[in-house]
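Dear colleague,

Following up on Tuesday's group meeting, I ran the structure prediction for the two-component complex that the binding team flagged. I've pasted the input sequences exactly as they went in, so you can double-check that nothing got truncated or mislabelled along the way. The structure tokens for the whole assembly follow below. Feel free to forward this to whoever is handling the docking comparison.

Inputs:
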Amino acid sequence: MARIVVALGGNALGNTPGEQIEAVRHTADSLVELIGNGHEIIMAHGNGPQVGMINLAFETAAQSDETPEMPFPECGAMSQGYIGYHLQNAIQEKMAERGIAKNCATVITQVVVDKEDQAFKSPSKPVGSFYSREEAEALKEEKGYQMVEDAGRGYRRVVPSPLPVDIVEKDVISSMVDKGELVIACGGGGIPVVEEQGRYRGVPAVIDKDFASEKLAEELEADFLMILTAVDRVALNFATPEEEPLTEVDVEKAREYCEQGHFAPGSMLPKMKAAIKFAESRPGREALIPSLEKARDGLKGQTGTRIVAGS
Amino acid sequence: MARIVVALGGNALGNTPGEQIEAVRHTADSLVELIGNGHEIIMAHGNGPQVGMINLAFETAAQSDETPEMPFPECGAMSQGYIGYHLQNAIQEKMAERGIAKNCATVITQVVVDKEDQAFKSPSKPVGSFYSREEAEALKEEKGYQMVEDAGRGYRRVVPSPLPVDIVEKDVISSMVDKGELVIACGGGGIPVVEEQGRYRGVPAVIDKDFASEKLAEELEADFLMILTAVDRVALNFATPEEEPLTEVDVEKAREYCEQGHFAPGSMLPKMKAAIKFAESRPGREALIPSLEKARDGLKGQTGTRIVAGS
């Protein structure tokens, strides 16, 4: 029996509530199979499209009626509730189907970041709507937003993507896991907070869900960090004639591949970096990057990419 | 030391994120004082203004851009994340200030209602925006919404307000409370779900937070149900020259007052009904209805209204 933190991408959750309900039932199937095999699962997930949708809805509504503006951390908290509800509902259903008597619940999670993180100096993560150059200038002026031109489609606000330093609710999560409960936590990488005069204050930022999941896996002393993706295996020279899928790679080699630019930033690169960090955090720990569909086979080593400590 | 389920009204949380942050710090002060005195607190809360705001933002955005429509249960789940984040953040801060080493976290909570509940036949709870008669007719036609004229201000959608039957995450919440953690649960009365072919399906409805809190208090075998309100005491003939504040009342008398129409539906009436239900659920249980500011004195019997089982 292994303890496994499973990280699910926000893109795998669809773009509407209906799509999300379908997607989570599918995900729940894979996860509950792992649970049926005796493993302990802790679930983390992304929220890119979902927090974008929530943010956009409030931005749009704030323009045309008395809806207040909704800060980014609060939008993230909403996405944790929204996605967590669907996930726990689907997992509860699939466990009941298999006669697994386990509880499942979502814990709203704040993740601490360092105020001095370099990311705050160069915000890079686009969020919310597209604006014209004039609108972008106005937002910069009025609200102090950082705006960038995004791939010819207009201007967007960018927020920093700092690294996770600590998980505020880690002890709660840990004792729930020790009790045998399936916990959904760190949704969207967690609500980013900084420590300030003895309190945690939410900041407009996005913590990469791969790094937050890695932090969670370390805190929970997990055996495996499993980062689900859309392809069967991580590949070198992805989408070229020289594409070469990776079955198992040690952290030194993996780091080399990262430096050689084999992995796309915002996609496979953070997954590989989080995998490396976890694999070298303590002897015996491994990271796995299989496809969502083949999570079970990934754990057995039949598919996916395994990232292991060097010998 | 007593175990106390505290129910906080959504109206006490303000109408904007900024107002809510202020409000919860104030609430946290009162609660943490009770904890400092050795009591176990479980926190439930309403979400009327907040879920209304979220629902409205999505309705508005869905009209003017590609934002999907957001079903009512999903809006409720978002409100649990949004309010829970602020509450746990403020409570964590206040506990740290007083050197109380306790964990605090929000659990996303689904509450089961009966498909056959009479409330589904006569939806009564207004939600979301105001519409013209023509718009209301169109929504009735297109989406099957029930619409009513609301106090001369236009037409609004009404959803049913069924009674809570069960709390899906009760075992998780219970074991967290047993571990000494401060849990925030059943936000907005819980996400309403019905049981259907072995799964829980979200339904557009609003469960009264007073009844959900009462159910939670019974499940957790609490000693007290404390329903916070805006006035110092429940009163007979409220806001008339004959106003008479109630200090202590037994369930028989309380029921009589309810029948005599002393308490406003949607305001003090559900609080009294939930209080009666809890006080008579088991010998020794009491319900308290003090003001938010005087929660501590309410527990000591120095203020508020006490509802006790008859002799």
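Chain A touches chain B through 58 residues (CB under 8 Å).

Cheers,
M.
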